[in-house]
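Budget justification note: compute hours in this period were largely spent on complex prediction jobs such as the one shown. Inputs:
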Amino acid sequence: MRAKMIVEGLSSGQHRSPFQGFSVEFAQHRPYVAGDDTRHIDWKVFGRTDRLQVKLYQQETNLDLLVLVDSSGSMNYGSRPFAEASGTGREVSLDGRMNWTKFDHATALAAALSYITLRQGDRVGLVVFADEVRMTIRRSSGKTAWRPIVSALATHPDQTPGGDPRPTDLGRAVDQILAGVTNRCILAVLTDLFTDTDKIRDALARVRHAGHDLILFQILDRSELDFPFAEPAPFQGMEGEPELRVDPRMIREGYLEALEKHMDECKRLLRGFNFDHHLIHTHEWLGPSLAAFVARRNALLKRAKSG
Amino acid sequence: MPLLNPALFAAGLASVIVPILVHFLLRRRRRPVAFGAMRFVLEAYRNQRRKTKFEQLVLLLVRCLVLVVAAFAVGRPLARSGLFGTAPGAGGNTLILIVDNSLTTTATAGAVGGDPDIAALKDSAQRLLGQLSTSRGDRAALLTAAAPIDAPVPTPASDLPGVMDAIRRITPADSSADFAAALARAKEIISTMPEAAQSRCTIALCTAWRLGSADLSKPGVPLSLPAGIRVVMLPPVEAAAPNVSITSVEPLRATLVMPDDPRAADRTTILVNVVAERTDTAASLTLPVRIAPVTAGSVSSSGTVQATGSLVFAPGSARASVMISAPVPAEAVRAGSNLALVASIDPNDSIAGDNFSVAIVASRVQLRAGIFAQGRLADAEGAIDRFSPAEWISLALSPENSALDRKLTEIEAVTLDPVSAPAPEVAGLDAAFVVAPHLLSERTIKELAGMLRAGKLVVVFPPSQPVSPAWADTLAQGLNIGLGVRREPLTLDRPQPLSIGQPRPLLQPIIGELPGLLAPVTLTRTWPLESVPQDWISLLRSGDQPVVVSGRPPDSKGLVIWWTVAPDLMWTNLPAMPLFVPFVQEILRQGVGSSAGSTESVAGLIPAWPTSASQLRPVDIPGRVARPQSATEPARTAGVWRAIDSSSKTLGLFAVLPNTAASATEPADRARVSAWMSGVVGSGRLAWIDDARSSSAGEDGTSTQRTPWDLWLLAGLAAFLVIESIVARRVSPWAASAQAPGLSQSSRTEAAA
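Corresponding output:
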């Protein structure tokens, strides 16, 4: 529901429309709604009818979307209260969590991306991965394709409390995915990228070699970005790391340095393969990320049409 | 290393535990924090671990060092200047100050109520000290002269302000001064210094030279000080100060025997003789005297004033005495306990420390006397002319009081077989009356000797019948008394009268009646003594011959009273005379009290408490606040003290009397002082400090500076504090936090771009 709301919100013109940059073949008209790009208004029709109509174009090529959602242990972390983030009015999640985790954020984003793509008439598939592919939903299109995706994300066992925390192995997951994908598609990877950069590089290289495109949404919690902790305490990792008792104020500077260095390296790798990277933190609105996805998708389509 | 404030130094050192405890307390348990980006936490920790741990360790170390240095600075070590590069004795002068704090230093020079001598002496000592300079490497030591001497600064110290503080803290004692011991100690200090330093050493004697301070009548022992040492001394004061002192408190009875009988209430008072002396004899003087009984725990709960009397000094008289009847609180009397009588006066004189004196009185419910004789004693109903010596003694010890229709029970007299008296019974006696000494077995003689060692009384009468004379030698040797007895008794041609010898203290209670009671007494037979030890006294004499002598064996504290006449009508009519009962009773009561040994000592002199005592605790110290002290040295403060052993068991009350001989305020003249001091230290090195009392500090252009120790300590403290601030700032988490903004800000900026 949240994903739909996000998408519809975008559609209602509150944010830049994700439907801009359509394909070049005219298909039909539809009434103008606030927020539509005025370049697509058919002025001839207006002159004739005094009604604003927007030209719709037919896509000449289909571009499948494969949404890859990281369900590793670290994605189960979040500091934002669930009640504030979910928009559902509930204080806790269905599985009893008080906080809105990165996985929740990834779920919402994945659902929104799927919705947008399905409305375009393209196929969407879902892969949930951690150290390997944990679950797959085959690509399909149509109205009935969205619900299974959302349902699968909402009830994934890796994110239930007490679930087995697994580390992220993007390379292995990519290997497993690419083995089953034959046509060109966009891989939208939703992850915190808490894995070795070597493995990230290998995964990106395989995706590029296979001819696919990739847009990576790095989802982090705001507290992971700012490290606001003040009291000495034992810190426990969520992917089997050893517990460490430390005064966070003593290591904050070093932590931020290490995180920034990792993020910069990841960005550099992605740029090097000409893939998009978007950093999202769990306290942020998803709209800009969705807009970025749509822009990317349209650019790909345009490129494909022009050969 | 001696410290001026060892307690503060110890407290400062102990406070080092505080930062260490804080260091561990900060590690208290907290709830774990699950964190997604743990890999970066670990990476940051790994990178910073060594540096952070090192910095935190340095910080902890610096903080501990700050406290240690502060402890030293507060403790004020009295260090030798050689520690900081100045070689010991190289270049500096050494001053050994001897400050008189004996009883006469409490005398006020000039008018009563002015400053006491000790204030001026301390002032003079401080002025002398003020002429030293730490920059020259000068050092000072400090001794006090009241016996036994003390050494507040026992070795020359470069911490001159510390020595100054020690001078300020000197308090007067109740004893006389012992300049000989103080000078000998000064010589010991000098002997530990290098030879080069000894020639720059000065001994300064700060005393008013009142005759009470030091006995200049006897020449001092020459010290043979090394060459080059100077001895300077303050000149004598100009005039004596008016003073009245209580010289003694003499209870008529050293032992109170008070049966637990309400009808004996009339015996709950004792007579106390107070003797006082004064220096100013110009006019008559009447002084009230207060007697306050003191028990082992505290001053009597019956109130502060128990008895009063008045000392009356006639014009021109330096001595006065008064007899006071002092009631004794019933609760203060328990079998085997001691009672202290504190007599005090308030003459508004120059020395307050000698305005009181103390006497210790033992209290007993009953005395037990053993009569060593054979045969049963008659019931005293038969003809007295047939009474045996034992029967006479028994009658004298326990006469009946027909008015009360009972026997007086303070004295229990038992008859013991001289051959086989049971040892436990003998050990339980307070006194032994030996009327058949020729029958004593060797074992019984040993037990009698044991009684003497235990501080008991043994009264010996010669046999009333003809016997071999060997008994006398055997008994004298067995008791270890150096009496020589004639081989056989002597029958006198005609009855000889008796005269009083030295009746005090044994016959003190009847001394007034003694001449009258003695008048009708005659001797007809005697067993004379050929030799009597020099320190023995004759209580009664007949002509020039002693009849009753008393003394102590060399190895015992008990008392022997040896009669040369048997209590037999064939020898003397004494048993049938009124004198006999009181005489025998008094030698028993007084003898028991006397034989127990003295419980009094003079401040600064040999203590009277037993060697088993480990500590003295103050019970009543008039005019002073005294702290418990070790029993291994004499007490300097007069008053009533309680001696305890190592298991805290009370051994008894003991009186430390002011040394009234040390309260003579008349000053010695310069010539006499010079002569005496020349005999001790040599004439060529003496000098008077005539200007010391009028000069002010710093007039000679020098001043006492902070010692190198203090400078270094303060500098070290400041340096450590600076280091601590720097390191704390570096490792401070707040500093680190303030420098690094979060990445969410930068990500937002990038997104906007």
